[in-house]
Amino acid sequence: MRAGWYESCGAAEDVFHIGDMPNPVAATGEILVRLHTSGINPSDYKRRTNMKAGVEFPRVIPHSDGAGVVAALGTGTSGFKIGDRVWVFGAQWGRPFGTAAEFVSLPAAQVRPLPDDVGFDEGACFGIPAMTAYRSIFANGPVSGQTVYIPAALGRVGAYAMQFAKWGGATVIANASGSDKCAIACALGADICLDRLEGDLEARLMAETHGRGVDRVIEIDFPGNLAMNERIVADGGGIASYGAASAPQVTITLTPRRARNLSLQFVFVYSLRPDVIEETCAGVLRAQAAGALQHRIAGSFPLSELAKAHKFAETQSGTGHVIVRTD
Asked: Does an H or E element contain 167, and which?
């Protein structure tokens, strides 16, 4: 099979190789998928550039997410047949070989049916971004009638979070930089979008909630925004954190929070319990079936341009997903 891989950490143009490797074989309990597309997530290029940590395995085929068709079934699998359209997730978590290749073999639990109305490009977005967003919105239960605040609303996760929250019956407040980006956020489901460039975000958010605050914050930078979030969360509300870009540690103000019942939910979809993964995947597919999801594709590249695709993904935050075509 054709595949893209790296054997040392560094810049994409310096470390990626494109070439032939033996086809994987579906082991017991696994499904072999002939991939058409592979989705790039921030974790993919952050691992590749992490010189301090080094390479996890002697050779790494990157990417966790992808979409394609079932090519073979290992013994002990059921529910699929050869030729079925599918999407996959978590392919390179704890494993050397991900989806930047023509084939991947994965445990059946990491393979899901791809709806007929969803293309392979969009299917490669269903994994980490959509699953993270779904879990962030619904980890503490239904959000119908609640107010959900989503910073970084046009990020890969944030854009899905807006749509899931709206589908779930919440009032959605987003923020984005500039009126043009706010217009995109509203088209994706935000009821209100606050322009970060206009300043005094906290005061405007509290005014929009008539001083009550929001029920839930879906936070990409928990340490960087905690000080404000502690002040804007309503009594009994919570923060779902799926990122910590600015610092590895944070100080939480306990005294007033104990009276106001703040909850914290840290979301890391790679290691969710099997039952939670099942519910999360089913929820993503329910939202898709309901017509609630738009999938934003910022760029699509052939496997031969894997390095170019990574460089593009690193610089295009807020514009959508970057897809690698593996067929």
From this structure: helix 156-167
pLDDT for the residue 269: 94
Check residue 317 and give its pLDDT.
77
Measure the CA–CA gap between 142 and 156, rounded to whole angstroms: 22
> Do residues 97 and 25 lie in contact, with contact meaning Cβ atoms separated by under 8 Å?
no
Q: Is 212 left (phi over 0), alpha (psi -120 to 50) or beta?
A: alpha
Give the list of residues 6+ apart from residue 325 with CB closer than 8 angstroms, or none.
Answer: 36, 37, 300, 301, 302, 303
Q: For the segment 245-266, what is each residue's pLDDT rounded down to a tens digit? A: 777 788 888 877 777 888 999 9
State the Cα–Cα distance between residues 19 and 2, nearest whole angstrom.
Answer: 6
**Angle (nearest 5°) at CA 78 between 281 and 29:** 85
Q: Of 159-163, 257-261, 273-277, which gets the smallest average pLDDT?
A: 257-261
Q: What is the CA radius of gyration of the chain?
A: 20
- Nearest CA to 134 out of 92, 98, 104, 163 is that of 163
Q: 73 pairs with which residues across the strands?
A: 31
**241 alpha-carbon distance from chain centroid:** 13
Q: Apex CA 249: angle with CA 243 and CA 251, to 5°?
A: 110
- Which DSSP state fits 99? S
